[in-house]
Amino acid sequence: MTLHTVKVPSLATLRDVAAELGMTFDETDLAGHHEAIASSIAALQLVDRMQDELPEVRYPRLPGQRVAPEDNRLGAWAVKSVIEGAATGPLKGKTVVIKDNVCVAGLPMSNGASTLEGYMPEIDATVVTRILDAGGTIVGKSVCEYFCFSGGSHTSSSGPVHNPHRHGHSAGGSSSGSAALVASGEVDMALGGDQGGSIRMPSAFCGTYGMKATHGLVPYTGIMPIELTLDHTGPITATVEDNARLLDVLAGPDGLDPRQYGGDRAYNHVEALGQGVKGMRIGIVQEGFGHAQSEAASDALVRAAAERYGAMGAEVETVSIPMHTVGPAIWLAVAAEGATMQMMHGNGFGFNWQGLYLTSLMDRHAAWRDRADELSDTLKNTMLLGQYMTRTHGGRYYAKGQNLVRRLRAAYDAALQRFDLLLMPTVPMVAPKLQDADAPVPEILQRGFEMLPNTCPFDCTHHPAMSIPCGKVDGLPVGMMLIGRHYDERSIYRAAAAFESGVDWTAISA
């Protein structure tokens, strides 16, 4: 246990603190405050001497090994290791890679960032323990984007992650390594994270199945936060059954995550597989197509895939949800200020919630202030916007954005009263080329954010959404996104499994 030793400030330091808060004191009043604060510091010193309350690490593991370039052709491995899970369980025989924003005790964690390199967590995230309890074998950590702030795969401090379908093209982000390793067949399953689409976007680019479940269904405990109301983690897999099986293992409250407010439920998503889609009602969301950056061939392939559900017995029709077009703006109001205040100024964890805080991660992450020039341009741009808006407007646009989330959620809920599922392209295009290392800032930012418009609204509204591969354009995968009612992941899996079993997406091209 590291003691940081809280010290009583000098009178000069206390005066500086007061000035930061816009306060002025004469010498007598300042001395009075100083005396009271000295008593308070004594209480905080008692807290400092107490043992922290952290979960037990139960499974032995090999030290992490960096991967030689010749064995890391996609740039997707952050570190390899072997952690054998329980002798039996639903994941026995499955290999799982963990996104590098998730704590695995004894394995280095950088979250794609040079400023966090060298950090070694002392705990396993809840999801890691659940995978091991279910018999899974964890085989390492996957590269992710710099503090997870990119939908492309070009911002990690370790270098770009390549698309397994075409070297030199994006694997998507921010769970870039997770999707690439699953799609290349190097692992069976992966954990991803999703605040704006970061499970679903790389799944679309790489041709994997990526589920962002209902907010809070999967505990986020032990994962580096970005913004509490946007944080999601979940499975990326090569098959629907593996995806449902992994979500069954991950789901449910752990008593440590304030994002989990849905109560305990029975989770058996695998049971929904094989039921077919006959009688299901699927709404093709008109506003999910035809974005300024949309590729016509990709849009057309998703529409054709949607019509295949009609041939399987589902009722398929187009539905208009005009609010979907302003969803990205509402998300941005929440994400820019919220992430700047919590993940950066709040050292990842911020304040005003109860659960597991990882002080070692907070201490290490705080170093970004002395190395801010190393941050990725996608993160810098978000922070510049968030800092400007907070300084100039005092958080009112974050607050208004959160208020408008209710209207956006209601718009989707109204459509979901008519339909069992909504459907649209996961992203507007197939995987673009990775840009050069010295690309200009506008190009870096474009490649980081251009794929967000369909995915990010559902991080705000908390609806479950899954990307499933539905074909290829010019040899690169196209993702189709299915959206369901809150806690109705079963309907999504039912439809995803029907498409997987009835359509060979690798044989469909445009």
Rg calc = 23 Å
Determine and state the CATH class of the largest domain.
Answer: Alpha Beta
Name the strands of the widest sheet in spatial order.
Answer: 1-3-2-6-8-7-12-13-11-9-10
Mean pLDDT, all residues: 97
CATH topology group of the largest domain: Amidase signature (AS) enzymes
Domains (count): 2
What is the CATH architecture assignment of the largest domain? Alpha-Beta Complex
Explain how this protein is built:
- By secondary structure, the chain is an alpha/beta fold.
- The chain has 2 domains: 11-49, no CATH class; 69-507, Amidase signature (AS) domain (Amidase signature (AS) enzymes), CATH 3.90.1300.
- The chain is 35% helix and 14% strand.
- Strand 4 (162-163) and strand 5 (166-170) form a beta hairpin.
- The termini are far apart.
Q: What are the salient characteristics of this protein?
A:
2 domains, 510 residues, 13 strands, alpha/beta, Amidase signature (AS) enzymes
Layout of strands and helices, then pairs:
Layout: H1 11-20, H2 27-49, E1 77-84, E2 95-99, H3 126-133, E3 137-142, E4 162-163, E5 166-170, H4 176-183, E6 189-193, H5 200-206, E7 209-212, E8 233-237, H6 240-250, E9 281-285, H7 296-311, E10 315-319, H8 327-345, H9 359-365, H10 377-393, H11 396-418, E11 421-425, H12 441-449, H13 457-461, E12 465-473, E13 476-483, H14 489-502
Parallel strand pairs: 2-3, 2-6, 9-10, 9-11
Antiparallel strand pairs: 1-3, 4-5, 6-8, 7-8, 7-12, 11-13, 12-13
Describe what is shown at a glance.
The chain has 510 residues and is of the alpha/beta class.
